[in-house]
Amino acid sequence: MTPALDISGLTKRFGDTLAVDDIHLGVPQGSFFGLVGQNGAGKTTTLSMAVGLLRPDGGSARIFGEDVWSAPERAKAMVGVLPDGLAMPERLTGREVLTYLGLLRGLSRDVVTRRAEELLSVLELDGADGTLVIEYSTGMRKKIGLATALLHAPRLLVLDEPFEAVDPVSAATIKTILRGFVAGGGSIVLSSHVMALVEQLCDHVAVIDKGAVAAAGTLDEVRGARSLEDTFVELVGDQDTGVKELSWLSH
Amino acid sequence: MAVALTMAQMKLAVLRHAFRGQRGQTAGVGAVLGVLLAAGTVYLAFAGPDLLAAGYAVWLLGWVLGPVFMGGGDETLRPEYFSLLGLPPRRLAAGLLAAAFVGVAPLVSLSALLGLLVAGARLGVANALVAVPAMVLQLAVFVLLSKVSVALVGLAVRSRVGAIASGLLNGAILAALGQIWVFFWAFGQTGVPAAVWYLPSGWALLAVRGDWWALAALAVLVLLLLGAWAALLGRRAGATRPSGRGRRPITAATAHGAVVAKELRTWSRDLVRNHQMTFALSYGVCFAASPLILGWNGMLPFAGPIFIVMAAAMASNLYGTDGTALWLTLMTPGTPDVRGRQLAWLSAQAPVAVVLTVAFTAFSGGPWPLVLALLPALLGGAAGLVPLVSVYALVPGTDPHRRAGNPLRTSEDDGGLTGLAYLMLALVPVTGAPAALAAIRYGWAGVAVGAGTGVLCYWGFGLLAERRLRTHGPELLDTMRTGRKARTTVKSRFDQLSTTRRTIAWWCFGFGAIPLVPQGVIAAVFVADGMLRHTWFLATYMPPGLRYPVAGAFAALGLAMYGTGVWIVRPRPAR
Question: Which segment of the chain is annotated as a signal peptide (chain A) (predicted)?
Fold first, then answer.
């Protein structure tokens, strides 16, 4: 079966630093794939290249077999993306953002209206109908971002840190939505540095360290008998350093 | 003092990083232009004190109006960075002032103020000595007046009424300066008006010339302005509130309509853009109307065209202003983003321009063909150039939700923004030139030419912008995200050619215009008008039967050269 997302040999260099070094990853259809790594390991860079937001220096990315760079229209129609920290059309309300993006995706007016209504109410954004996105809190921004990613009913979701700054109640809602999406045959790639969350949600996992894949496979293959956190620390942590203390902080 | 020193060091550190690469080049070009202006000002010190005082008045206006016109002034160190330190406002202001002295613009201004030293040295040792503190105080007045005026406008654009009022006012002031000759004429003034001596920009020169009190006055002014700025800093809280709620019903039903609606809402709800639009309107009206003071209404019909040019300059960083929201456009390839933005810009500006033009031309009864030729030519040209310039010369903007308390500052690179605005001021009139020339020469035929070039520019420039967005979208997003121009990994067709082919293409594109335009088209016009033996137009020297054929052959040669160039660089299917 064609993988939902097939990353082969993606490489990116920023000046002298090699941010992503020849990464190969296959995300099987119907899997919930977690990408874990330290800050600066190259998760965001990899995901940006995989969906066509950042041009790689080398390698390719395919979404259900369609190359992101040579057949962008077909590839991008099948993926919903939640990038980390990028702007939205800030001076629109949540409903306006969803309506206009849906129309741009080629959905009909009725479908857009219905889906926008549902997404806003499920994500509990319908109370902020008169509020412009620029006034949203960080958590609300994540939620409207997720709504835009879901809007056109893609077959693959690529989510960069979807749970950051989201309160526990909303997080539970989002988890339910995502699990339902996978149960319905969809595939998800999400990046996070919260191990417990990845362990709880994902069935596949890849550990990224210094721009390369340190381990990848099903959750059980990667963590073995231990917790994911222990495996992660062993894979990417420096061996010689214990936890340091700030001596001047104690009174 | 320690605070001031630390902030100056911080600024220096930031600038060292910022001026690497692309922005370093922009700053370098700006510095060279500035040093030339400064040298010109110092030269005025030798020409006469009146002229020098006038020169400094111009520098002062540049400091006060420049940042309001575009970019919001230097704010490398945002006051918000220090809000948790608990500094008293005055010390914060003093520290920021010290930091504000570090930079290209203050250095350039300081070198312009060397004119004071020259003026002093020509009078005596004591005068030269006074010039040193006078230079520093004068620079402080420049910087502080700039900060205070930006802060005041920044406060004004918190509300729609304030945004519109300050836009009207600023447009009127700038237009009055552009038309200063009218006022000179009206008041029978010749030479340099005495007022330049009494503006704060003249006080340092007064001090140097022996009016010692002026030095004290400068010092007092610095303290007053510092106090005012400290008070204004306390009033800038967080990001500007957007205006307008989402109450408007959503009517768009197509992708194209969605882009237009999205743009129009963004424009009407962004108070800075409200301010810029009223500024353009006020500038156009005041500039064209000011000769009425002399009883001359000949400029009135051009209020509309001037408004179009200014409005285009204000929108020159169209894509940059939206920041990284560009990712949504990249994720929905094939959407009519450029066309929608063009239509939105046009539908917001064209009605104003048409009403202004028709009403004012009817009032002054004149030259209908010229004005009606310019109107479509400029509207089409501007609506084409706005997206084109903003994707080719994108100045990375600060994402709207990350902007600090100064609403006018939409980018860290205010020099780049100003440059882009001036570029637009220069380019848009060019798109109106063919129509204007045709209208002046052939009357109503010009209107057809204007409509033709307008549609052509709208369509063609839009197409180029669309293409650029498609091929370089990720690079543009990267520029927006990092604030630096991305090193492109896309090779242009040109780079892939062999040296010989590249040279031929260079020659064809570089020199094709010579046979086509002067030796072909213009020579034919001269022949038609019976202007013979004209300078270097070969066809005009030919015997009667050969004149048109020669001009025609030249035109054909020019077209052939362009054709060859295009053929060489045209995309070929990969084998």
Answer: none
